[in-house]
Specification:
The protein is mainly alpha-helical. The protein has helices at residues 17-27, 34-49, 54-60, 65-72, 80-95, 107-113, 118-130, 135-152, 161-173, 192-219, 222-228. α2 (34-49) packs across α5 (80-95). The two termini are 43 Å apart. Residues 217-239 are annotated as: Disordered.
Length: 239
């Protein structure tokens, strides 16, 4: 989905005519599907900024000064990330112009494969088309592909959502912040209704944490699990 931003200031003085034309044409694209809009925006940028030469964009990349100035223009009404995604989707259209996916997939599908090697893009888009994948299914497959390529290059594997959620909760509640948000003192002045709601939420979180801890302990060697449960060794113990 393209993130639309509110229109702001008028044309600045001494602006680059190419950027002015590009901004105007993109702002005129207020109708159609998200995929049609992304393709049109990508085509406009390539035509105006790169004189219709897609290879020029590939060579110069996202750090190209003209592209960065365009992305920073407050009158553009779309975010910088949406602009870069539109360019990536337009590049897919050029490379896979006759692929049947264009009649079946959405912008969310195509966004999932951006940044992957061309061979992986082709493989996943073929599968998504022939198997009628949802965008979520394709996103999951693309995430696995990214992890595999990072690992093969010696990079760090992508963390799963549950790992990121647990780490975020630990940072918030373990006193790592400037203000100790986990201190019981902050709960004293809460209204009774809010305290009841927090108790319900904490009960659910405690149950989920206990379930996760049980699952993790089941994957540990028996000797390691015993050492974790000894006094003085940090371990999760739900109450």
């Amino acid at each position: 989905m393209l993130e639309l931003l509110p229109p702001t200031s008028p044309c600045p003085p001494h602006a680059d005519p190419r950027l002015e034309r590009t901004t105007t044409r993109i702002r005129d694209l207020v109708a159609g599907t998200h995929l049609q809009m992304a393709l049109s925006i990508g085509r406009i940028v390539v035509e105006e900024i790169y004189d219709g030469d897609l290879k020029s964009w590939r060579r110069r990349g996202p750090k190209d000064p003209s592209l960065r100035r365009l992305a920073a223009d407050p009158r553009l009404t779309i975010s910088a990330s949406a602009l870069y995604r539109a360019l990536g989707i337009f590049e897919l259209k050029v490379r896979f112009a006759d692929h049947p996916m264009w009649d079946m997939l959405t912008a969310c599908h195509l966004r999932a494969v951006l940044g992957l090697p061309e061979s992986e893009q082709c493989r996943l888009l073929d599968l998504a088309t022939t198997s009628a994948w949802t965008s979520q299914t394709l996103e999951h497959a693309a995430a696995i592909s990214r992890d595999n390529h990072k690992t093969s290059r010696g990079g760090r594997s992508r963390k799963s959502p549950v790992v990121r959620a647990i780490e975020t909760a630990e940072r918030a509640l373990a006193g790592d912040q400037d203000v100790d948000v986990a201190s019981p003192a902050v709960l004293v002045e809460l209204p009774a209704e809010q305290r009841d709601d927090l108790l319900r939420r904490l009960s659910l979180i405690r149950e989920r944490c206990a379930s996760l801890a049980t699952a993790l302990e089941g994957q540990l060697p028996e000797s390691h699990a015993r050492s974790e449960s000894k006094p003085g060794v940090s371990s999760y113990a739900p109450h």
